[in-house]
Amino acid sequence: MSLGRLLRALEVKHRVDSFADRGVTRWGNKDIYPVIKAEQTFIWSDFYAYWMTSGISMSSWTLGSSLIGYGLTASQAIVAVLLGTLLASKNAFLCGEIGRDHHLGYTMMSRACWGLYGSYLGIFLSTMQCLIFFGVQAYFGGQAVVLWLSAIFPQFLRLKNTLPESSLITTQALLGFLLYFVFFTPIIFVRPHKLQKYLYCSVILITLTCFGVLAWAVHTNNGSVGNLVSSSIKISATERRYRMGLGICSVAGQYTGSSVRIADWTRFQKTRRASIPAMLTAMPIGITIGALLGVLTTSATLQIFDGELIWNPLIMLQKVQHENYTPTCRALTFFAGIGFTSSQVFINMTQNVVSAGMDLAGVLPKFLDIRRSGIVIKGIYWFHWCLNWRAFLVFFLCTAPSMPGFVVNINGNSIGKAWTRIYQVTWFFGYFSAALLYCSICKASPPPGLGVQEDMPEYIEGVVVTTEEIETVSTSEHKSKHAVEVSEPDVA
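Below the sequence we write its predicted structure tokens.
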């Protein structure tokens, strides 16, 4: 087979119900174009399931450990989680607009901001974040598989480690990690607009599991959570306030990634307001509940394990198995392992795989769609050389001041206190300074087509409309108000 025939065979097959006149091009396929009416299936309760899946989870459970490690008290850590997630939820509300109005995802929003070629930077950063967090969540998922396998098979619980210490993983953990992918891979083939029923099951399982673990810990500790865990770090009141700010920024930053990409899910909503209630309530409340469960359970088990601090519930339950391998223990840890496994599967699917899939589909849409990534537009967004210099300028200007403090935080060297303070409140500094600076630059040097608003549904629902007809209608609607250049980019 020749290379040309091989490439044609690998191209994404076009669906006749999705922009039939455009087909699969270098800039779009069925996963990039606006979602058709038949796939706009998410209602308000589905978005509650979506946010609660990532809210009550391993990630939120362990949030308290890092915040208390900063020097915060348990109560301050919970307040920081709530405030940080409230900020992230407001960001989700803003970034979900393109999905609510036009049923388009993050990839198209990135192109509008950075330019068609410039969007590759935004897509690269988003995809790298998804890959990193995918690995973290998959590792937790492997630990969950180890937990329920150990409950079923005593031989697996006592499995000898045959890997060298330098591998930084045991035979048991490696097998659990590989088996996690056996359960995870089939889920990739479920289209995003059909995931709701699985999300409901996952939310129910993980909620029962987390509250069950807390109930066990309190019961075993004579009906009390004991003294709440606290930091051993002694800091001044001023330093504590800045570290509180650092905690809020840390939480807001951790969940801003998923909130920025929320258009990948709001594009599937059935009505325009379906996603808003859950976005503004379930996200902050769910994550805060998850963090609170982690703090309370760790506090209760602190006395059970003679002062040993164990934040990871999977490690904690594996320790219980080794110390008290009774039929009751085996049954309870089995169901807990199933609950955590389900959670890790669908967190990775909703927060990482779908987003990364759509991002990568935007890079090579002729060959990649959502499924393949998991395993021709002409107009105002060409800017100059397909790059929006405004976005790049703001990105680097607002990122640079936080870099000295970031580097010091990693290598431990000393630096001027001002740089450290900027890093500690980097979310506030970067978010608001970037918004103000970008709006100011666009006011001083307006990008082409600023203020143009298009309503697209009449061009989507299976109706074959040619590109020329769309451009003719668009031009006639806005010619009196806007002068929009729609020429090809000035590239060699």
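The CA atoms of residues 127 and 356 lie 5 Å apart.
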